Amino acid sequence: MKIPKKINVLGVPYKITLSDKVELEGQDGIYMGATNEARRLIKLATTEDFDDGAKEQTLFHELVHAILSESGLARTLTDGENEVYAQIFGNATHQIFKQVV
């Protein structure tokens, strides 16, 4: 799957960028992906040990974060719940997508 440069999430345009390193403001560590809802930006890491399948799965994970935010549901969830939803629904939609493409 080709990673798009832009995608609409519930009618809101998000830019998707690839970066050597993905860091989150105010948090230690390097991540596989991150979503900045305020900037409408999804960043995916491009490290060598991060294959195309992992990039796709991370994109779906980050898209769930964007969906939760744009729908207003993120405000009703704790950070931990938001992360669990993104992991479960990101993995599920990625697996379904891989079957139909």
Notes on the protein architecture:
- With 101 residues, this protein is α+β, with helices and mostly antiparallel strands.
- It is 42% helix and 21% strand.
- It has 2 helices and 4 strands.
- The protein has a 4-stranded mixed beta sheet with strand order 1-2-4-3, covered by helices on one side.
- β1 and β2 form a beta hairpin.
- α1 packs across α2.
Break the fold down into its secondary structure elements and pairings.
Blueprint lengths: L5 E4 L2 E8 L13 E4 L4 E5 L6 H20 L7 H22 L1
Helix pairs in contact: 1-2
Which short descriptors sum up this protein?
single chain; 101 residues; alpha+beta; 2 helices
- Head-to-tail CA distance between termini: 9 Å
Order of helices and strands: EEEEHH
Strand order of the largest sheet: 1-2-4-3
- Low-pLDDT runs: none
What structural class results from the helix and strand content? alpha+beta
Could you give the count of β-strands? Answer: 4
| Computed CA radius of gyration, to the nearest angstrom | 13 Å
Strand percentage: 15-25%
In oligomeric terms, what are we looking at? single chain
Estimate the helix proportion, in percent.
40-55%
User: Average pLDDT value?
Assistant: 91
Largest sheet geometry = 4 strands, mixed
What overall form do the CA principal axes indicate? globular
So how many helices? 2
